[in-house]
What does this fold into?
Amino acid sequence: MSLQAPFDEKSALRNEVKTTTCYMCACRCGIRVHLRDGEVRYIDGNPEHPINKGVICAKGASGIMKQVSPARLTRPLKRRQGAERGAGEFEPISWDEAFDLLEQRLARIRSSDPKKFALFTGRDQMQALTGLFARQFGTPNYAAHGGFCSVNMAAGMIYTIGGSFWEFGGPDLERAKLFVMIGTAEDHHSNPLKIAISAFKRGGGRFVSINPVRTGYSAIADEWVPIRPGTDGAFLLAVTGEIIEQGLYDRAFVARYTNGGQLIATAFGLTGLIFLSLSGYALVSRKDFSFMAGFITVGLVALLGVILVGLFVDLSAFQLAISAGVILLMSAFILFQTSAIIHGGENNYILATISLYVSIYNIFVNLLALLGMGDD
It folds into this structure.
């Protein structure tokens, strides 16, 4: 006697599972959608997906409501005749009527002033297409969800450390010993990051959370820093200043692989350029102008600038000597040219003086950049 139940072909065809990606936030977790007779019954995590490994949050599980919610819009709505804006009084119309209304309104705006048209879209992954439409329409006023959420963060991190969170990649917690989280929203990267933090803490890592409220990630942090809302920028500047003050950053890396040296040279150059131009003009415009005295004065100022830059950028004595030599030679050239212009009776000596100092400034910045590349 067989204990196996008889095969029900109709039952087998009614139930099926589709694997796809969750769209309820930017994590993009793998999910399994269970259907019966073609209708969504429930959603769970996909254990074979590399991101969430079967874990699913309440937000992801509630994705079924995007299909079955009674509040879901299935037809265009038009404000009732005579209804006040904001009253919430609408009536359904056909798609043809909706397209006719849009065509009339957009044609009127485009014929008068296209810039009065503003286009905003949600998290639809069609921003390239909608942006193209807006530009062809003639308006610069278009945006999307990402511009108000993650794109600025992603661009900043990609340009600085080469990667970013969410769909752009995650933190390298497998090799980290300290993880500092600053103001991360609880509804983003929830499943993958919580899995990673769990393994990170079990491996002995230290987790610091900086957030005004102690919920979600902050609740499991080893240290919670409750800063005031809106003070993130001031906090980060203070931390950066302390790191520089204590010398806790990798100077050799900054000198060789970043534009840190050029930024410092720029900061010196913008102020030093003005000072050197004024002092050079004051020296050479005197009737008792002494070329040697002017050369020594401006040269000493330039050398002081090289020394100041050397305090912040790792330059060897040889590199400093090369920089100083170039500065002295260019200072002599500038004073000679400026003196010839002024005492030659030309009226454009101020512009000439500034242009010459701009040249030395550019040479100085590029020289520092080249010297910085030689550090190990």
